[in-house]
Amino acid sequence: MPFVDSHCHINFPELAENVADVLEQMRQNDVVSALCVSVSLADIPQVLALAEQHRNIYASVGVHPDYQDVEEPDVTRLVELAQHPRVIAIGETGLDYSRLKGDPEWQRARFRNHIRAARECGKPLIVHTREAAADTLRIMAEEKAAEAGGVMHCFTETWEVAEAALAMGFYISFSGIVTFKNAKQLKEVAQRVPLERILIETDAPFLAPVPHRGKLNQPAYVKHVAEEIAALRGISVAETGQHTTANFAHLFGLAENYWQNY
Predict the structure, then answer these.
(1) Domain limits for position 213
(2) What's the CATH code of the domain at 147?
(3) What is the mean pLDDT of residues 32-52?
(4) Mean pLDDT of the region 110-125
(5) Hey, which end of the chain has fewer CB within 10 Å, N or C?
(6) Per-residue confidence at 256, pLDDT binned at 50, 70, 90?
(7) pLDDT at position 262 over 80
């Protein structure tokens, strides 16, 4: 059964310089598609170009909460960018207090704009949260993020946070972190999230899963995430692939067998 990398950054220099090999490695590992996620307005042209050039690459539009000194997106601009036929999501967006200095209100305002844009254009959100779970969930509730839906990407929070996101209709996406030996809490969450609400991702070029931990990550390695989830849940890797690939299609409005056209 094929796999889908629901979140990667193959436009980043480490991977962009050798896209042909990245795509070939995907093919060899049954990774049929990937979502290339934007982190700033400046990189959106590169993200869109990859999606235009390769049928199995999709794009998102958004500005990451870590990026402070960049052009700020308003709702109108995000909605306009999201009209591109290869764009299937808004984000990544959210809150990240891990390296933040000073008042985080600008992050919260940016997050609200992304949620409003997602609701207006009818495309799901890709939510990043780090050391900010309570505020992330509060703003999602206040801005009615459930109307847009989306995914909590690279999930590393508690079951209680996952449960709250699930209650808003969001999916939970697991990255290579779930393969790390010390990720005991996360492994428990991966056992509890309903199978029909799980996605898998690499967040490449970061967070390579075991057995490639510490090396450059790439979409082909999402298969290792599927293998770990399968082991944790006592199901086959094929079943994990079947569900996560179907979940990706359902969340992002694609035909369930869309990948068979590649």
Answers:
(1) 3-253
(2) 3.20.20.140
(3) 97
(4) 98
(5) C
(6) confident
(7) no
How many independent structural domains does the chain possess? 1
- Quote the mean pLDDT of the chain: 96
In this structure, are strands 57-61 and 31-36 parallel, antiparallel, or unpaired?
A: parallel
The length of the chain is 262
Q: How far apart are CA 177 and CA 172, in angstroms?
A: 13
Helix or strand holding residue 241 (H, E)? helix 237-251
214 torsion bin: left (phi>0), alpha (psi -120 to 50), beta (else): left
Query: Mean pLDDT lowest for which of 46-60, 158-172, 210-224, 246-260?
Result: 246-260
User: Is 93 within a domain?
Assistant: yes
Give the Cα separation of 35 and 56 in Å (integer): 9
Strands, sheet with 3-8, edge to edge from the N-terminal-most edge strand = 3-8, 31-36, 57-61, 87-96, 125-130, 150-152, 171-174, 198-200
Q: CB within 8 A of 67, min separation 6: which ones? A: 39, 40
Percentage of the chain with pLDDT > 70?
Answer: 100
For position 260, what pLDDT does the model report?
81
How would you classify the pairing of strands 87-96 and 57-61?
A: parallel
Q: Is residue 106 part of a domain?
A: yes
Q: Measured between alpha carbons, how far is 16 from 22 in angstroms, rounded to an integer? A: 9
Q: Which phi and psi angles does 27 have, rounded to 5°? A: -60, -45
Q: Is residue 261 part of a domain?
A: no
Round to whole Å and give the CA distance between 233 and 210: 18
Question: Above 90 in pLDDT, residue 24?
Answer: yes
Burial of 206 (0-12, 13-18, 19+ CB in 10 A): middle
Structure tokens at 115: 């949620």
DSSP 125-193: EEEEEES-HHHHHHHHHHTTGGGT-EEETT--S-HHHHHHHHHTT-EEEE-GGGGSTT-HHHHHHHHHS
